[in-house]
């Protein structure tokens, strides 16, 4: 029995670790993690993409460092150590976004700093990076980070198109289009997320049955 378990674990490749975050275990559409920034900053495609990439960067760097230090950090202080590592990279990201675009930094607001307490990043550090090699942790972080970014962009694109009639601030509808203001408000975030969850669950259910 133990040999069967060992052989099944060996079958999980780095590519599998990467792909699972994009679809099978997508942090937003499947695990429903990090809902605070997902609903708060996905009112435009630009904000959603920026927050997704910022979170992916912090996730990647913290996964690498946690994996490198996994044999040196005592178990009693591991969570505090992970939070310190994550906070360091969030600070770097905060300054980088402010240097690139002050307007974008203002749009994302306090949610950049709140990446520190994003349950997605802490859960990957505790559940994966602290138990696996650096290479596998990199693929895991890339898959989860890009999956998170993809989900945020899906929400942001739909909300901006219907709420403002534009995508990346470029108008796509003719004059006279009646925008749905509610879509860029918090209620629109919940509504759009519910529709996406319905679509993703429907697709996965059909694949399971087939």
Oligomer: single chain
**H-E order:** HHHHHHHHEEH
Radius of gyration: 19 Å
Strand content: under 5%
- Record field, number of beta strands: 2
Major beta sheet, strand line-up: 1-2
Inertia-based shape: globular
Approximately how much helix is present in the residues?
55-70%
Structural class comes to mainly alpha
How far apart lie the N and C ends?
30 Å
Task: Enumerate the spans where pLDDT stays under 50 for 5 or more consecutive residues.
Answer: none
* Major sheet size, sense and barrel closure: 2 strands, antiparallel
Could you report the average pLDDT, rounded to the nearest whole number?
90
**Total of helices:** 9
Task: Describe the 3D structure.
This protein is mostly helical and 210 residues long. The protein has a two-stranded antiparallel sheet. Helix 4 packs antiparallel against helix 5, helix 4 runs parallel beside helix 7 and helix 5 crosses helix 7. The two termini are 30 Å apart. The model has no long low-confidence stretch (mean pLDDT 90).
């Amino acid at each position: 029995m133990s040999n069967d378990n060992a052989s099944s674990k060996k079958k999980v490749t780095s590519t599998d670790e990467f792909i699972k975050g994009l679809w099978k275990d997508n942090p937003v559409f499947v695990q429903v993690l990090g809902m605070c920034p997902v609903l708060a900053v996905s009112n435009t495609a630009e904000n959603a993409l920026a927050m997704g990439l910022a979170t992916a960067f912090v996730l990647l760097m913290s996964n690498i460092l946690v994996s490198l230090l996994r044999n040196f950090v005592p178990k009693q202080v591991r969570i505090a150590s992970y939070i310190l590592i994550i906070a360091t990279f969030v600070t770097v990201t905060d300054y980088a976004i402010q240097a690139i675009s002050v307007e974008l930094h203002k749009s994302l607001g306090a949610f950049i700093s709140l990446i520190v307490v994003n349950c997605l990043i802490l859960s990957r550090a505790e559940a994966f990076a602290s138990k696996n090699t650096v290479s596998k942790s990199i693929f895991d972080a890339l898959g989860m980070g890009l999956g998170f970014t993809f989900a945020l962009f899906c929400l942001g694109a739909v909300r901006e198109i219907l709420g403002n009639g534009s995508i990346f601030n470029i108008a796509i509808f003719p004059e006279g289009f009646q925008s749905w203001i509610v879509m860029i408000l918090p209620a629109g975030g919940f509504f759009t997320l519910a529709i996406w969850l319905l679509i993703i669950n429907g697709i996965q259910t059909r694949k399971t049955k087939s």
